[in-house]
Design brief:
Layout lengths: L3 E4 L2 E3 L11 E4 L2 E3 L12 E3 L2 E3 L12 E3 L1 E4 L18 E4 L9
Parallel strand pairs: 1-3, 2-4, 3-5, 4-6, 5-7, 6-8, 8-9
Length: 103
Amino acid sequence: MSSSYFEDQDFENINYYEQPLEAGEYEQCRFEGCSFAQANLSNFQFTDCSFSNCDFSMATLQQTAMRNIQLKHCKLVGVHFEACNPFLFEVHFEHCNLQLASF
């Protein structure tokens, strides 16, 4: 199964539980006002991406690569970051809700 590659793209106000995000690799992409609540993002790769005002509540991140990720004003309730791919894992949080999140 091949996966898609997205670079330097903007994604705004999309509900990825209703319309799943295309599996693949995202580099230098910007997500604004998107909902990933209960979405399955397993095996996705995010590199140098930013997320603003997004909801990741109870999202599945099994082996998800998160490399130099900026999260601003995001809701991350119940997210299991320990399930992410540990290779080059780097996330930065600014004014985020991390209740019940685990690392």
